[in-house]
Design goal:
Number of strands: 18
Largest sheet: 9 strands, mixed
Low-confidence stretches: none
Structural class: alpha/beta
Oligomer: single chain
Helix content: 25-40%
Number of helices: 18
Bound molecules: adenosine-5'-diphosphate
């Protein structure tokens, strides 16, 4: 059978290296690039934020005046074009009054008050720019709430449009905890018929819910791991949308994010003290020393270093960790943290650091170089998340031979298997219950193995470093769901 090539428009509110607040930006760069490398016609589109402008990469204007409806008026934007590193075209929607701001979604104190308008405009610009460019993709791949209205527009206002009527949509949920909830008075901004503000449409407990919009109207829905795709259909993880997701479960798929090994590989990483690989592990010892120096901690060869790089919030398991961190370091373990987020957690980590100054190191802020040093220099990597749609850090840790200790949730459950000495199988340590004691016991198991059975630990490192989580497999799975989305387009509505 001849290979099917797709035309894809990939729509995201952030794309690395232009603008990044989380994992979505990495995916929005890596996946389109991987598809392009396979010969597909893929184009990316994002807002032209100040941050994107300041990235200083060349762009050219391709549409000087693109009219986009918003509420009962039409506002003009400009469309620019640039390229990702492998030549994948990326379009930027330039509308300075919305996007030329210091932050993407708002300052640390909270969201911008006009986020509904900013991203409804962005979503409405998608069908309009396709018309202006006469580009008919097979599939529009939407990501998270900022793009949730695109599938709605295709199924309503543009359903008879000669160019767009056959275009399918795919909606990817990267984190269901962020839904794009806005009050009902924003409904006229959408330009949609008021009847759509209903339980069958985009209404959610009296508000507009843009994630629900994507879920209800897309031809296919994906999320970033198989386990998370199951979890979000339950009340515990569904954030109130579990019923909506269950109703669409036949169209819901879990596809794991891949790792960019060009960026995260100890054999070629320029940001770490010494490069190393499976056959030459001496470099990892130097990285450990270097990491401890960074944190002003003393080096003891047989003391394991437990690393953590994380947003500090409810999701990432800070509360259960803080309850037992003192007991963990009492096992003769050194703990280093790099994080940003809730001040209440920062204060508690700082207080423990003062209590155990020779065992605990904490640094707050976003620091990519230090993140690489932790991945390389630590012996173990901690991710005790309450929920984790995919998680990238544990995947990077595997490559660096830094053994993950994780809770069995979402992508952590899909990527980490408990190591068993008897069989020599497994790549990490995984506990089930979201409880401080479960985390403590699992960490103690890891520390005991590290100290008492270096041979087994070496085998475990080998298993971890050999694992392949590159984009290859996931790209194939996305191509399969693009095909399904195209097929479904003709069946639904
Ligand atoms: P999430 O997207 O939920 O924050 P992931 O594990 O999927 O979690 O991705 C986190 C990414 O962000 C990793 O590449 C990690 O190294 C990076 N990261 C997180 N916090 C920091 C920080 N404070 N400094 C540098 N990098 C960070």
């Amino acid at each position: 059978m001849a290979k099917q090539t797709f035309k894809i428009l990939f729509v995201a509110s952030e794309v690395a290296p232009y603008a990044k607040t989380g994992g979505l930006a990495d995916v929005a760069n890596a996946l389109p690039s991987a598809l392009k490398a396979l010969g597909h016609d893929v184009r990316v589109v994002m807002p032209y934020y100040r941050m994107a402008k300041e990235a200083g990469k060349p762009v050219r204007t391709i549409l000087d005046s693109l009219e986009v409806p918003i509420a009962d008026r039409r506002e003009t934007a400009r469309l620019l074009e640039g390229e990702l590193s492998n030549g994948t075209p990326i379009y930027f929607l330039q509308k300075n009054s919305y996007y030329d701001r210091e932050f993407l979604y708002g300052p640390p104190q909270g969201d911008y008050p006009d986020n509904a308008e900013r991203f409804m405009y962005f979503s409405r610009a998608i069908p309009e720019l396709l018309r202006a460019l006469s580009f008919r993709p097979d599939v529009i791949h939407c990501n998270d709430w900022q793009t949730g209205l695109v599938p709605v527009y295709l199924k309503t206002l543009y359903q008879d449009d000669p160019l767009l009527k056959e275009v399918a949509s795919l909606y990817t949920i990267h984190n269901l905890a962020y839904q794009g909830l806005f009050w009902h008075l924003d409904m006229p901004l959408t330009g949609l018929p008021p009847q759509l503000f209903s339980p069958e449409g985009i209404e959610f407990y009296g508000k507009i819910n843009l994630t629900k919009a994507g879920i209800v109207f897309a031809d296919v829905i994906t999320t970033v791991s198989k386990k998370y795709s199951q979890e979000i259909q339950t009340p515990e993880y569904g954030c109130g949308l579990e019923g909506v997701l269950r109703a669409r479960s036949a169209a819901l798929y879990g596809i794991l994010n891949g790792a960019d090994y060009g960026e995260w590989n100890p054999a070629s990483d320029d940001l770490i003290a010494a490069k190393y690989d499976l056959e030459h592990l001496e470099g990892k010892k130097l990285c450990k020393k270097d990491l401890l120096t960074e944190y002003d901690l003393s080096h003891r060869e047989y003391t394991p270093v437990l690393g953590m790089i994380s947003r500090l919030n409810e999701q990432k398991g800070c509360d259960i960790l803080l309850d037992v961190l003192g007991r963990i370091v009492d096992l003769d373990v050194t703990f280093v943290l790099l994080g940003t987020g809730d001040e209440k957690y920062q204060h508690r980590f700082q207080a423990l650091q003062r209590q155990y100054p020779d065992r605990i190191g904490v640094k707050f802020g976003f620091n990519n170089r230090l993140a690489h040093k932790i991945e390389a220099g630590a012996d173990m990597f901690l991710m005790p998340s309450r929920f984790e749609p995919c998680g990238l850090s544990q995947i990077y840790s595997l490559k660096y031979g830094t053994i993950p200790i994780v809770r069995a949730t979402g992508g952590l459950d899909d990527t980490i298997q408990n190591y068993r000495v008897k069989t020599g199988r497994g790549n990490g340590f995984k506990f089930q219950e979201y409880l401080p004691e479960a985390l403590f016991q699992k960490t103690m198991e890891a520390v005991t193995l590290y100290r008492q059975n270096p041979k087994a630990w070496h085998k475990l490192m080998q298993n971890a470093m050999k694992a392949d989580f590159s984009w290859k497999k996931s790209t194939r799975q996305y191509l399969e769901v693009y095909r399904i989305a195209k097929e479904r387009k003709t069946e639904r509505f």
